[in-house]
Design brief:
Family: Belongs to the MYST (SAS/MOZ) family.
Helix content: 40-55%
Keywords: Acetylation, Chromatin regulator, Metal-binding, Nucleus, Transferase, Zinc, Zinc-finger
Radius of gyration: 26 Å
Order of helices and strands: HHHEEHEEHEEH
GO molecular function: chromatin binding; histone acetyltransferase activity; transcription coregulator activity; zinc ion binding
Strand order of the largest sheet: 2-1-3-4
Number of strands: 6
Protein name: Histone acetyltransferase
Distance between the termini: 71 Å
Number of helices: 6
Shape: flat
Subcellular location: Nucleus
Length: about 200
């Protein structure tokens, strides 16, 4: 059993530890000139709920297709019409993304791109301008920008005018970067072809 004096001593030592930790954190922040950052616009519950509903809908529709195809693979009219719709959609993909945030700029998209369905159902996605990683939420995008090791695109700068620069990227040297090269670019140009050779 702990006595009153020992309880007071423990409380004082805990309070002293907390003060020391706080002082160290403040000293560290002053030395590194860090300011506490509050990330605005956290993902709202409605967006998260909407995304879950869309994912559930996609999963259920694919399961329904699989069950129907197993039941009647040759005479199933629904699977035949879905197959013809899939062929038609390969020719003319539908653009579901309304806009992207690329770096500090928000741009409206003109054409469809090859993002996965759980991303294309969202009205807005965030893309890192240096590593081309896409994120669903603003808060994830801001965290990524703080931690992203790339501070400029790889390759040779081939054009600069004011604050605008174009970089030439060698596909043999930057294979990891070019696994998904035309994702954000294809949203703007309809006749873009991927030049990757496997």
């Amino acid at each position: 059993m702990v006595g009153r004096k020992e309880k007071k001593r423990l409380l004082r030592s805990n309070a002293q530890r907390e003060r020391k930790i706080l002082q160290r954190a403040q000293l560290f922040a002053r030395r590194n000139s860090l300011k506490p950052t509050i990330l605005p616009n956290p993902p709202q519950e409605t967006h998260i709920q909407l995304e879950r509903e869309v994912q559930e809908h996609l999963i259920l529709s694919t399961r329904l297709q699989q069950v129907e195809q197993k039941a009647n693979p040759s005479t199933n009219l629904i699977s035949d019409t879905l197959a013809t719709q899939a062929d038609a959609s390969k020719e003319a993909p539908v653009n579901n993304l309304r806009a992207i945030v690329f770096g500090e700029w928000e741009m409206q998209t003109w054409y469809a791109s090859m993002y996965p369905p759980e991303v294309t159902c969202l009205p807005l996605i965030y893309i890192c301008e240096f590593c081309l990683t896409y994120m669903r939420y603003n808060i994830a995008y801001r965290r990524h920008r703080l931690r992203c090791k790339r501070k400029f695109p790889p390759g040779n700068e081939i054009y600069r005018r004011g604050t605008l620069s174009f970089f030439e990227v060698d596909g043999e040297k930057q294979k990891v970067r070019l696994l998904f090269p035309s994702g954000p670019i294809k949203l703007m140009f309809s006749s873009m072809k991927s030049s990757l050779s496997s």
